[in-house]
Known about the structure:
The protein is mostly helical. The protein has five helices and three strands, in the order ααβββααα.
Amino acid sequence: MQITEQQIKTEIKKSIIFLSGFALFFIVLSLVISLIPLQFLEWPTAWFTQQFLSFIGKPTVLTFQEPILLSTETTEIAISYLCTGFLELIVLVSAILASHGIEWNKRIKGIVFAVIGTQIFNLIRIFATVLFIFNSDIQTIDLVHNVLFRLTLFIVIAGFYFIWFAWSIGKLKFAFHRKFA
């Protein structure tokens, strides 16, 4: 199949519209989030992490400061804005909103699932990192925190967007119900 010059121009136009919309939504959402004090964004992640630590037998004291600190008898863990997953969520939501040609109800569903999915995944990622903090040497902790931490979230963002987009254009079907005879 030969690609025509008109098809190339159409795809370039779509790309420019998407990237412009993405940049606009990213800026607006970032500005809105910047109006919220960081501690209020960090607190839920810190609180869930504190509950997880208590569950595994590591009681902590949560200090409401910037960044929020979780302190055990031997360790202090800082929960900063970058630990919350909000930046990644803003990227994903901006991409969903900028996906022109997709029905708004599908975009809204995508955003709802993005919020839930990224926050659950982010907590799992935080919990795994915390386990490494208590059970590994500093080089392993550094690798997990600085490389794998970011890499896994990138993969989740790209993967979630891919699945959402494929579903929204009808290339992927999910069966949420069963037929009973």
